[in-house]
Input
Amino acid sequence: MDWGKLRFFLGEVFANFTRNAGMQFTAIGTVAVTIVLLGAFLFVRETLQTFGAGVLSQIEIAVYLKDSVDDTKAKELAAAFAADPRIASATYVSKRDGLKRMQAVLGSDFDTSLLTTNPLPNSYHVRVRNADDVPAVARAIAKDPRVAKADYAADTVQKLLKTATVLGRAGIALIALLSISAAIVIANTIRLTVFARRREIAIMQLVGATNMYIRMPFIAEGMLAGTFGAAVAIGVLALAEHQVVPKLAATLAFVTFRVNELTLCLELLAVGAAVGLIASWISVGRYLRT
Amino acid sequence: MIRLRGVSLVYPNGTRALDDVDLEIEKGSFVFLVGSSGTGKSSLLKLLYREEVPSTGEVIVDNIRVDTLRRSRVPKLRRNIGVVFQDFKLLSNKTVWENVAFALQVTGTRTRDVMRMVPRALDLVGLSHKSRMLPSELSGGEQQRTAIARALVGNPKILLCDEPSGNLDPSNTTEIMELLQRINLKGTTVVVATHNQAVVDRMRRRVVRLEHGRILHDDERGYYFRGLGQTAVLPG
Output
């Protein structure tokens, strides 16, 4: 390792970086805002996913049996359910149990003495391992001759799934736009540095420095701005996690959050560095080509 | 060492800087390019280090076809050519030593070699004792010597000088010309574009005179104006 070379290179990067500090702060700030929003987006998506998964896992298929199917015949179905690997559990609820449950749920609002016969059918409450399988499983069960109807909260499931995808796409679009704007700010900052250093660049070209070599300090500068921005953002996110999330968790029981993961931090830093790299690469490249 | 064949250079704005120029320069020679401003001296030099590409014709430098050279090969060509300008083109925030070392550092020279080559170049131009000074603390002649040290530090085969004495007083000019002559004696091919008649007439080297982009005359041991020595009195 040639330490002299390294020191010269770092000196160049540092000189670039400090030359227009004001602009550099703007670039770092923009990256920070972008990455804070990216972090917030990841948080919301994470929360929605856990929340959604919780809801979906609670979705039951209510299987109503035909009146002609008596208790003993109904219990034969349990074997069929057990054989299906997609089904997590199937609880048999007889006519009588069903009525009891309804009384328990509705309490005094519901006067069973008004009923002359039990209107409820024998039924199964089926839980599916994977929420995505709910529609398919329900359809399969409905084909059974003993089954009158297999019902589930179809709308709820589908809406939830759809909302999750739409939110995901909108979030990605938003992050992409923000990343582009951050990249533009960095590119402009680099362009200022390039402009300030055009004499150096001209001399470098004159004495036979390769374009790659001329590019390097500027690339490093862009990556540095991007990484600094990401570091600031991680700080903000960590603070937010400490201050805001516990309060959120107190009111919204479904909120479970994890941002202090090392991998996530590294990912955000990598995003910042990548934005800086691409921006400065393009910015210097355009100058060198002309 | 240098060969131009049928070279024309027309700038995008339509200016014809060079018009069908043929020129050959031997290895180790010392050549003056003379002519009034705007006659194509600088353009000719720029063709040699590939700052410009000819509109037609061939440019060969050290057995390399420069006019068709791929862009990625240009840095290597330039490491073989030192260039000095009228305005020195020094970096004002770097010391003499750093300015000279810069040429090596940005071409990826190992530090050990930088430490060895920079003092040698400074010694050649006689600036070892001012290596820690900034360009603003130097005289014009010293600044130009720094620029020459930078151009030579990588041991190029060719040194191109574009009006090297344009910003210097007569005594500094003499100093620089003597330095260029010494460099030439060490084997470096030196090409000097100038319109300094006194210098050309005193040194009696090969003189290539350009007028309107064409070679008007080309004399061994020539004068600025053909057939006239420095004692001649010019009309007007």
